[in-house]
Amino acid sequence: MPEPSFVVAPPPIVSLPIVGLDARFPIRRVFCVGRNYAAHAREMGHDPDREPPFFFQKNAGDVVSPGDIAYPPLTADLHHEVELVVAIGRGGKDIAIGAALGHVYGYAVGLDLTRRDVQADLKKAGRPWETAKAFAESAPVGAIQPAAAIGHPISGRLTAKVDGALRQDGDIADMIWNVPEVIAHLSRWFVLEAGDLIFTGTPAGVGELQRGNVVEAEIETIGALRVKIV
To answer: What residues of the chain score a pLDDT lower than 50?
Structure first.
């Protein structure tokens, strides 16, 4: 069959590097889990009881590699949120908790950058979060560590420093819903596909960023990333 033609140029494939490989991980969609650490839920004014997880999305094009990040327009309160990112390597729907890790390709460190003032206004109005969460360069992600190389971590310190000062300090073992549970819940709402990313939530200590700040995020055994807000 002849190659199709398009009236506009197709979007480029967004991808991330993989530790130890020249091949890259193509990104299809980006899902995020809200309030998945009890201490963070409390600091945001919510009850941390184990209610069913809820999800929002960013765009694949919002994902960038570490480096300089432009301070976004239409906000005066940009926040950092360090998160464990799960890279899905095999799709499926209604995935059982016991089978969920078989769908994981690997793990990475990510930052969910958030227009916090915009998000607060949206919450009050009962409106969707996209303008607070899904903006250009809002999802810096480091290189992916294949699960075949590191296994499936169930614990590990995750931190975020701003200009060398520790802001966030938690452990992935403290997630209210662990990785297999998150995948199982998400796959009931969406048919997961290879190339999907899942941001799994952030510990307490989120805070404001200014132009010129350097953010260093790290998760034990998985990696680190460094971004500068410009």
So the answer is: none
